[in-house]
Structures
1.
Amino acid sequence: MRSTDMQDIDYAAAQARSDADRRTLGAAFLAQARRHPRRLAVVDARSRIGRLRLAAAALSLLPLLELEPDESRVGILLPPGVGGAMVNLALALDGRCAVNLNHTTGEAQLARMCRLAGLRTIVSSRLYLERIESPPLPGRVVLAEDLIPRLSKLRVLANMLRVLLLPPQGLDRSRPEAAAAIIFSSGTTGDPKGVLLSHRQILYNCDAVLAHIDIDPDRDILASPLPLFHSFGLVPGTWMGLALGVTLAHQADPRDGRALGNLIERTGATIFISTPTFVRGYMRRFRPGQMASLRFAVVGAERCPADLKLAFREAYGADLLEGYGCTELAPAVALNTQTASRDGTVGRPLPGIEAFTIDPSTGERLPRGAEGLLVIRSPGRMIGYLDRPDLSAEAFVHGGYNTGDIARVDADGYLHLTGRLARFAKIGGEMIPLDRIESALQDWLAEHHGQAAADAVAVAAVPSRRRGERLVVLHGALPCSPEEALSGLSELPVLFRPRAADFYPVEAIPVLGTGKRDLGRIRSLAAELASDDEAEPDPDPIGEPA
């Protein structure tokens, strides 16, 4: 399947074509290396490498890793860049599953991921481990600094000839249906789950993104500061470039706006992907003129405020396009484009991806336009959760994936996200949307006190002896009284309004390494702070204060 003829394909046809696709990630890159051997594959702050040399280096690296024949999964703890791309490519060519590890989750979760994936070997870098102050890693750790001196020029040259002369399938030991990656979910609402994605699923998503949005491999350079353990950092940010021929500009630290600005300016990058939280920080670090080459940027993982889109357009003359995805869907699902965009939405589904809603209580499919649980049918749907067939069975409904998001699909196919099902409180028998309350509070604070104040609040629900649950607001430096802030919720029902007594100051709103809010930590922090404070009555469910 190729992205050029996917524009009007429906889900059934897309799934059939994906099932028949015999490509693997490694073979797709080898084909690109033969087609354009000298074209740049990856550029980072320290180095750059062309496609033919990257292919040869990856093949030359494999014997140096000294992996056991039965090591089907190998851990990677490397930043985006030439090294990270090379190791992921090498493992794909060798028919092994890459597990890019998230070090930001802490020592216990990192050890848990390694244990669940059955990792015996982790490939990393001494310099990177020192920079991130990594906790101890289990098993055998292979360091890039020890491998690079052993990459002989003669071996690399010999592999260059093999890439040019042999068919890609002769150098690739993988199968299209085999697991290419395990990506651990961000863990926003609980322990991270291991998501298994096949070569075929990842390639479908790459093809669909390229068909949906205006990206030309002969013209564009894609900058990605997202970590390799982030599904968007690994798939659109890395494999789409490698497999489909888009030059990549990789930035190692997703928080370093100054370095990203320098990279975009130096490489002439035309597109970058990130999250709204990171982008707001970048804009304080980018220097005038650095974004001159930029055509547009794509953001996801959290709601993108309208003021950020406007500020980005005014500052750089480029659109900030909001999209939506799930790790379990390999990951991109929907995306606004430069020619088809609607405010307040995350865009239309990519080609071959079907979106609809179901009733959260009955599981019945709802008519278009009705709000309910969002289900996605996509050829990119994961193989399943690692060693959790029970969770996989729960997630797979109506031939698709239950995203856990509350949404509606409008008459033109645009997705309107309301919130997470897990982000609802049950108060007095009513379902209360925490995201809606949080958004209204943030909008009011942004309008009256600036975006920094808006970013420093979060709404959570904690157990209540009388009402089941009650609302709690965590906040940083609040520039007004809680009573004044609550005026921003005056148009919401009374049950949607927290008490002024349930505003609690915190040092910072917890954020994951991916840039998303750490909902699990927010919930536990709220429970800790508000556990013994129910002195005042809650609002009456009829709609008047008690």
Note: The CA atoms of residues 193 and 499 lie 35 Å apart.
2.
Amino acid sequence: MKLQRLSGRKICERVMKQGKMWKGKTMTIRWISGPPRHPNIDPAVRAVYAGTFASAKLHKSAVKRNRMRRRCREALRTEVKERDILPAIQLLLAPRSSSLSCDFADIQADVRSFLSHVS
């Protein structure tokens, strides 16, 4: 299964307001099932659409906030790639400050836990 980008202010706001929330040790995920409503997106294609955001409250340094976002996104990408059957879903990943100092395996365990919760 492929990981696609979730982009656009309206689409991300919809996921933030209407989406369900899942909290793990290293990240918080807001999600809505189904593909985003956009003219360029084919609703028949099943994919995982993911976006990330990290508030300035998370860490003062933009470099470290971006590292947290990249680690969470990479953990999601590797787990989605291994699975064949997942529903079309829109995700917004919000890393927690613990995702900067923890092992990558902990982040992957959080993602596995979320994906088993969803599917």
Note: The chain has one domain: 3-118.
3.
Amino acid sequence: MIQCSGLTWRNIKRIGLFDSGVGGLSVLRSLVSRLEYSGEKEFVYIGDTLRCPYGNRPDRQITSYVKQLTSWLLQHNIDAIIMACNTSTAAGKEQLVSYAPVPVLDLIDPTAALIAQRGIKKVGVLATAATARKKAFSNIIKSIDTSIQVTEIGCPLLVPVVEAGLGDAHEAQEALKPYVKELIDQEVEAIVYGCTHYPFLDAALKNVLAGMGNYPALIIDPADCLATSISGKSTGALSVQPDAYLSTKFATTGDAETFGRVASRCLKQNVGQVQSVSLNELTAAFVLRRLQKPAMSAPLQLIAPEAVS
């Protein structure tokens, strides 16, 4: 179970999440639907859709964006930050941990722990170009068990499909096919959604696997692994109550109306009003944060999660 300097999931009340776009909503969905006390939480989510995707950007630029987003989130009195963007984790999680005065959680560590615990020996990761280039999942997985074979591939066609709200469309299956074939050729036992956008392609991936001889790959969603590591117990099926996101604040650097429409489609609920945040506002938040006395992030303990069903 994750513990943050005496804080537990139960007494963390306000959680900030960021992503390059709508992908991190898959993390929000898992937290809201699978965790105890989620109804008592307030979530603040910002998607940097104006600068999406992050996958082909250099690490230094991604880290700069992340510090801006984090600075904005910190203005909303959050108790913890979730990096709902694996590309940003690969680019510089350590820098964000040093920068933020609250606990910072990512999805890669609990996913690697789950894979090792379940004894999976051949893993395929559908990632962004940046995450694959950094071998973000491979490095963490192999730090636990060097015998695990990891095939990590960049999939630049997938994020635009999700951002366009086409996750359930035929275009999604066509975009997935070459990447899935590459993993099947490696005889992987499990396929990991290495980008938080990709769980919104779940139906499309299952259709592609069915069309390739019903290939029996276990599909792993890192958002579920994070939920398990927080709660300390296995998670069940997705089950979101009506109006589950009423206490969530949504914001975007892009067009608020478009973000709201795509987010509502992804979450299958109306997300309500979305705040538009300008890049100037992000810059101002970052500058203000730099002027304040820096504080160390609370230490974070991660214990390997239970296996998810």
Note: The longest helix spans residues 59-74.
